[in-house]
Structures are given as C-alpha cells and as structure tokens.
Design brief:
Belongs to the GHMP kinase family. GalK subfamily. The chain is an alpha+beta fold and 376 residues long. 42% of the residues lie in helices and 24% in strands. Bound molecules: 2-deoxy-2-fluoro-alpha-D-galactopyranose. 2-deoxy-2-fluoro-alpha-D-galactopyranose is lined by residues 21-22, 24-25, 113, 155-156, 158-159, 323-324.
Length: 376
C-alpha cells in the first residue's frame, strides 16, 4: 500500500441522547451530547486533481474515489464518504485529491452514531484542508443531506448537530424547528451515564426508520385537513390528535401521540436537570422507553430486557433505549458505587437470556469535532 499523506488529524465524536428520541425530524426537542469516543481521520492533500484515497483501518481496505465521477457504491461505509464528497462538490470548486485514513473508536451499529461522526469529521477536515469557508451549520446540514441522498436514511439533524457542536460537560437542548440551542451543564454526581450495548442490530432498522417518519407525516397531514395550522408538528395539540384519532387509525395515532408526549418530556427533563431532581429525570427516561417500545414500536426484546433489568436496581435512576432503535445501546443513569456490579450482573442475565455478550461503557459529554494535530 502507498504511504498516505497526513497534514491534519481530526477527532469526530459519537453522540448520546439523554431524551428526545424520534422528535428531531418532527420539529421537536432533543437533548444530546457528543461523547468521549470518536472517529479519528488523518487527512492530507495528495497533489492530484481528483484522486481520493480512503483507507478504512476497520475494514482493512483502501478505496479510490474520483471527484469527477462520484456515484453510489454497494459498500455501505463508502456511501457516507461519497455522500459528503457529492454534497461538498455542489457547494465548492476548491476540493482536490486527498488521502484519508479512518480509525474508529466507536462501536459500529451501537446507536452512538458512528455514521454522523464519519460524515461530519470528513466534511470538517476537508473544510480545513482546502479552506472551503464553510461554517459549522453548513457542515451539519450537508452531512445530513449526504445521509438522505447517499445512504437513504431520512434522518433528522440531531446526530450531526451533536457531533459537531458538543461541549465538555454539557448537554444541548436543541429546538429542531428553529435550530436554536442552549448548552446545559450536566452535574449529576454521584451518578454516571452508562451505555449497555446489546450488540444486536436487527435488520428491520433501516426501512423501519423511514416508515416511522412517513407515519408521522401522514398523521400531520390528517390533522391539517381538519385544523388550519402551518405544516409543523409543533402546531399540533393532543386535542387535535384525539379529534382525528379514528381517521388516523391506531398505529398513526400512537406514533403522533408519542411525539407530542416526548417533546413535553424533554422540556420537563431539562427542568429536572436544572433543579437537580435526578429521580424525576430518571422516571422520564423510563417513560420514554415505554413510549418508544409501545407507541413508536422501535424497541426489541434485547433492549426491553435490559431496561426491565435496570428497574430491579434502585441505584439506577432511569434507563431507556437510545437512538433509532431495533438494537444498539440502552442509556442508564447509575450510581457510581454500584456501576461495576450492575454491569457484571446485567452481562450475566443478558447472556443467560439471549446467549449474547453485553458490552458496557461509561461516557461523559465531551467536545465536538475538532482538530487534534495540524502540520505546517
Ligand atoms: C437516528 C437518526 F439519525 C436521528 O436523526 C434521530 O432521529 C434518532 O435516530 C432517533 O431519535 O439516530
């Protein structure tokens, strides 16, 4: 293999989301943070006009991409790269050939959004390398478009936002309608944020995400046939939903009522954090999990099992599935004194039930995408 050039090293973190799931693409509220685990991208100009050499250490392969001929690949991870390059080429003519080595410290498919970390890290790094003059919001939004157009997931803005905008020891309350956001210090001693990774990703996940989005839109359209409101979920009330319930049918009604309730929970959770009412904060996480499992139907037996298991521990204030669903991690708020025992016991019970290994990691809210090293 050729020696790849490195002028710049970028760290692009994964994210957690404390509360506010499946609300981002419904103009709602979310409360994410970047985490202390990241994808590292080593980038350098290679002197060519359009030849990009991308080396994924995890997949052990080097792919060549011609900037003059960007088309979708059958290779999933490559589409994240191709999507970002495609979107960048629409915005600028300053991009030239480059080398990139990708080293991931994020568990793939675990719900901490390695995909957004990769997209944003690449866009951020190329912006720096070629002086493209993009702002952070350009990077966030073009990375989201890359995922829509090249990967095919019609994701919201949360993951890309969290990866780029993260701040040490803070979570972020983002209003996905206005894109206003606020940093909120996270002072939860003696509790810890613990992720339990089911190590499963049910293949339903991909299509089901877009289906949920369509169902929410369908509900919104039905409400708008009866009430004069602008096309945003934020203008919908529970009374409106109830008035349209029979027309919507149970499935669409359940999706929409979940979204309205979840938005309220996010705001209440922020207040609980500010008031240091950690017990209430934990209860809200359990409520969210129930909504995701029963109304939004994006959980799975492995996630439900872990959340139920956590309820047997009074030192665990709350737990819920995190991210898009159908696998990945649960997020747990655990007293530091029992964290190790909890991990051990959860691992044993999980293995007994599913014959699968559980992995666990603590996270702390951390800074967003940043430059680790720059040569010259
Ligand atoms: C995935 C998506 F990418 C996010 O935009 C968000 O919708 C999340 O699922 C669910 O809250 O991570």
């Amino acid at each position: 293999m050729h020696q790849l050039n490195t002028d710049l090293v970028i760290s692009s973190p994964g994210r957690i989301n404390l509360i506010g799931e499946h609300t981002d693409y419904n103009d709602g509220f979310v409360l994410p943070a970047a985490i202390d685990k990241a994808i590292i991208l080593k980038l350098g100009k290679n002197g060519t006009k359009s030849d990009c050499r991308i080396h994924s250490q995890g997949f052990g392969e080097v792919v060549h991409i011609d900037l003059g001929n960007i088309t979708k690949s059958n290779n999933d991870w490559e589409n994240y790269i191709l999507g970002v390059l495609y979107e960048l080429m629409l915005l600028t003519d300053k991009l030239r050939g480059f080398d990139c080595t990708i080293e991931s410290h994020l568990p793939i498919g675990s719900g901490v959004s390695s995909s957004a970390a990769l997209e944003c890290g690449l866009a951020f790094g190329l912006n720096e390398l070629f002086n493209l003059g993009l702002h952070k919001w350009d990077i966030i939004q073009l990375s989201q478009r890359a995922e829509h157009n090249y990967v095919g997931t019609k994701c919201g803005i949360m993951d890309q936002f969290a990866s780029v905008m993260g701040k040490d020891q803070h979570v972020m309350l983002l209003d996905c309608k206005t894109l206003d956001f606020e940093y909120i210090p996270i002072e939860i001693e003696p509790y810890r944020i613990l992720l339990l990774n089911t190590n499963v990703k049910h293949n339903l996940a991909f299509g089901a995400y877009n289906v949920r989005r369509d169902q929410c839109n369908e509900g919104l359209d039905i409400v708008r046939e009866h009430f004069q409101i602008n096309r945003s979920f934020r203008n919908v009330t529970m009374d409106m939903l109830n008035a349209c319930r029979s027309e919507m049918g149970d499935v669409v009604y359940n999706r929409c009522s979940y979204v309205l309730q979840e938005n309220e929970r996010v705001l209440e959770a922020v207040q609980a954090l500010r008031d240091r009412k950690m017990n209430r904060f934990g209860e809200l996480l359990y409520q969210t999990h129930r909504g995701l499992s029963e109304q939004f139907e994006v959980s799975c037996p492995e996630l439900d099992f872990l959340v139920d298991f956590s309820k047997e521990w009074k030192e665990v204030l709350g737990a819920r599935m995190m991210g898009g669903g159908f696998g990945g991690c649960t997020l747990n708020i655990v007293h530091r004194d029992v964290a190790e025992d909890f991990i051990k016991e959860a691992g044993k019970a999980y293995k007994k039930k599913f014959s699968l290994e559980l992995s666990a990691f603590h996270t702390v809210p951390s800074k967003g995408t940043s430059i680790m090293e720059k040569n010259g």
